[in-house]
Amino acid sequence: MAKIKLTKNELKVQRDALKRFERYLPTLQLKKQQLQMEVRQNREAIAAMDAEMAALTERSKQAIALFSGNDNGGLQDIIAVKAWHTTTRNVAGTDVPVFESLELDVKEYDLFTTAPWFEDAVELVREKIELELKKRLLLETSMLLEQELRVVTQRVNLFEKVMIPNARENIRVINIYLGDQQTNSVGRSKIAKGKCAARDANIA
After folding, report:
1. Which are the contacts of 140, defined by CB distance < 8 A and separation ≥ 6?
2. Are residues 34 and 177 in contact, defined by beta-carbon separation less than 8 angstroms?
3. N or C: which end of the chain has fewer CB within 10 A?
4. Are the C-beta atoms of 85 and 130 separated by less than 8 Å?
5. Domain ranges within the chain, ordered by starting residue
C-alpha cells in the first residue's frame, strides 16, 4: 500500500475517491453480468449452428460430394462466393459483427444435361456456405465478448478487492491518527491550563 499523508486534506481525497469507486462499481458489475449473459447466449447459438450444419450435411451428402469435386465439373465450378456483407451491433460497449447478406456467383448451366436434383443441390450448397460464414462471425463474436469480459472482470476485482478496501483502510488510519492528535491536543491544553492555574495561585 502506498504511503499516505495523515492530514485532513488527504482524508477528503480518500473519501472522495471511495465515493467515486462505490459509484462506478455497480456500473462495472452490470456490464459484467450483461457480458456473461451474451457469452452464454453466443455459445448456445454456436451449438445450435453446429446442429443445423450437421442436419444440413446429412440432408445434402450428394450435393456436398459434387461440390467437393466432379470429373465432369461439379458444383464447385458453378458456385462461388461473390461477396458477403456484415454489420455490427453494440453489446455492453463492444462492437460485434453480425451477418447481413450473401451474394453468390452462380454460373449458367444447361438444365437439360444436369440431374433433376441439381437446382436443389445448388440451394443446399448456398445454405451451407451461409451457415459457415455465420458461424465464423459467431466465433469472432465469442472471442471479442470473452476478451471484454476478462477485462471487465479484472476491473471489478480491482475495485472490489483493492481500490475500495484500500480507500476504506486509508480513511480508517487517517481518522485514528487525527483522533489521536485531537486527544493529545486536548490533553496538552489541559496540562497547560493546569500549569497556568498553579502559577497564578503561587503568584497570588
Report:
1. 96, 97
2. no
3. C
4. no
5. 26-154
Pick the closest to residue 130 from 19, 56, 192, 189 (CA basis). Answer: 56
Q: Which among 147, 203, 162, 141 is positioned nearest to 18, based on CA atoms?
A: 162
Return the ∠ at Cα 61 (arms to 58 and 67), rounded to 5°: 135
Q: pTM (2 decimals)?
A: 0.75
Residue 187, all three cell numbers: 490533553
- The answer for 95, left when phi > 0, alpha when psi is -120 to 50, beta otherwise, is beta
pLDDT one-digit tens code per residue, 146-182 = 999 999 999 999 999 999 999 999 999 999 999 888 7
DSSP code for 93 = T
Distance in angstroms (rounded) separating the CA atoms of residues 146 and 101: 26
d(CA 80, CA 139): 23
DSSP 92: T
**CA 107/CA 98 separation, integer angstroms:** 28
How many residues are recorded in the chain?
Answer: 204
Q: What nine digits make up the cell of 47? A: 451449438
**28: nearest Cα among 149, 146, 144:** 149
- Write the DSSP symbol of residue 7: S
**CB neighbour list of residue 160: distance below 8 Å, 6 or more residues apart:** 25
H or E stretch at 105? strand 94-106
Residue 48 has pLDDT above 70, yes or no: yes
The three cell numbers of residue 178 are 487525527
| Beta-carbon count within 10 A of 163 CB | 19
